[in-house]
C-alpha cells in the first residue's frame, strides 16, 4: 500500500479518535453539569424550606374556628339549652332576647345550704328574667357565693368576684315593680342605686324587713316556689355588721339549672 494512502488512513483514524475523545469529554461535562445543577436545586429548595415564613391563618381557618364556637348557639345568638355550653363569666353586651313568651321557666338553684326553685316572671321584669336565664345557661353563677346576707332582709349573690362590685361586663335597665311587690322569696336585681345599673347580682327577700323596707327601684323577675327553708338557712348565717358583708356563714351556689315547660 502506498505510503501516501497509509498516511491518509492514519490521519482519518486519528481524527475519529479525537472526535470520540471530544464527544466523551462533552458527555462528562454535561453529566457533571447536570450533577451540579441538581445539587444546586436541592440546596436552594432546602434553604427555601428553612427560611419560608409561617403562613398566617386564612379566612377559612377563622370560619372553621367560628363554626366550632357557634355550635352551641341558636341562629338568633341565644345559647341552645340542649347543647353543651362552656362556662362564661364576662360578656361585651347585654344578651339577645331568648325567652319565649309562651313557655314557662324554672331555675333550680343548688347551693351548699340546699336547693331552691325560682319561677322566672318575665312579665314583671322582662330584661332581668332574660338576663338571669341566659347567664344561667352559661353557668355564670356556678361557684359564686351569697356574699351579702342581712338577716330578716335579703340574701344577695350573683357576683363573679363574690363582692358588691362584680359584673358580667355590661349593665342595663328594666321595669320598676309597683309598690308592695316584695314578699319573702321574691327575687330581684341588685343595683348601685342609680338607674340602668343592673348586671348579674340579684337578691332574694328573706324576711319581713325586706318586704316592708325595700324601695320599688329593684326589678323583680322571679319568686322562690320551693325551698324557702334553704333561704331561711342562708338568712340565719348572715351578719348585721358592715351591711351584711361578709356573712358569718358563707354559702355557695353549686349550679343553676333551667327547666322549660310549654
TrEMBL record:
Top EC class for this record: isomerase
Record-linked InterPro entries: Cyclophilin-like_dom_sf (IPR029000), Cyclophilin-type_PPIase_dom (IPR002130), Cyclophilin_A-like (IPR044666)
Domain PPIase cyclophilin-type: 106-258
GO terms, molecular function: peptidyl-prolyl cis-trans isomerase activity
Pfam families reported for this sequence: Pro_isomerase
Catalytic activity: [protein]-peptidylproline (omega=180) = [protein]-peptidylproline (omega=0)
UniProt keywords, alphabetically: Isomerase, Membrane, Rotamase, Transmembrane, Transmembrane helix
EC number(s) stated in the UniProt entry for this protein: 5.2.1.8
Transmembrane region(s): 33-51
UniProt-listed PROSITE patterns: CSA_PPIASE_2 (PS50072)
Family membership: Belongs to the cyclophilin-type PPIase family.
Function: PPIases accelerate the folding of proteins. It catalyzes the cis-trans isomerization of proline imidic peptide bonds in oligopeptides.
Name under which the protein is recorded: Peptidyl-prolyl cis-trans isomerase
Organism of derivation: Ferrimicrobium acidiphilum
Amino acid at each position: 500500500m502506498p505510503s501516501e494512502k497509509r498516511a491518509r488512513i492514519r490521519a482519518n483514524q486519528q481524527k475519529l479518535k479525537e472526535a470520540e475523545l471530544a464527544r466523551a469529554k462533552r458527555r462528562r461535562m454535561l453529566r457533571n453539569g447536570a450533577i451540579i445543577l441538581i445539587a444546586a436545586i436541592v440546596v436552594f429548595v432546602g434553604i427555601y424550606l428553612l427560611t419560608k415564613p409561617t403562613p398566617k391563618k386564612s379566612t377559612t381557618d377563622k370560619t372553621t374556628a367560628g363554626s366550632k364556637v357557634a355550635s352551641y348557639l341558636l341562629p338568633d345568638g341565644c345559647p341552645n339549652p340542649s347543647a353543651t355550653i362552656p362556662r362564661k363569666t364576662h360578656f361585651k353586651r347585654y344578651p339577645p332576647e331568648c325567652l319565649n313568651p309562651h313557655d314557662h321557666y324554672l331555675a333550680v338553684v343548688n347551693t351548699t345550704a340546699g336547693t331552691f326553685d325560682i319561677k322566672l316572671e318575665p312579665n314583671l321584669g322582662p330584661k332581668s328574667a332574660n338576663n338571669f336565664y341566659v347567664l344561667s345557661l352559661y353557668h355564670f353563677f356556678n361557684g359564686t357565693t351569697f356574699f351579702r346576707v342581712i338577716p330578716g332582709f335579703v340574701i344577695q349573690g350573683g357576683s363573679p368576684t363574690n363582692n358588691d362590685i362584680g359584673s358580667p361586663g355590661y349593665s342595663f335597665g328594666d321595669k320598676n315593680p309597683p309598690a308592695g311587690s316584695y314578699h319573702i322569696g321574691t327575687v330581684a336585681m341588685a343595683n348601685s342605686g342609680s338607674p340602668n345599673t343592673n348586671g348579674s347580682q340579684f337578691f332574694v327577700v328573706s324576711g319581713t324587713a325586706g318586704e316592708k323596707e325595700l324601695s320599688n327601684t329593684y326589678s323583680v323577675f322571679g319568686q322562690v316556689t320551693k325551698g324557702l327553708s334553704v333561704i331561711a338557712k342562708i338568712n340565719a348565717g348572715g351578719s348585721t355588721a358592715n351591711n351584711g358583708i361578709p356573712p358569718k356563714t358563707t354559702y355557695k351556689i353549686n349550679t343553676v339549672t333551667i327547666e322549660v315547660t310549654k
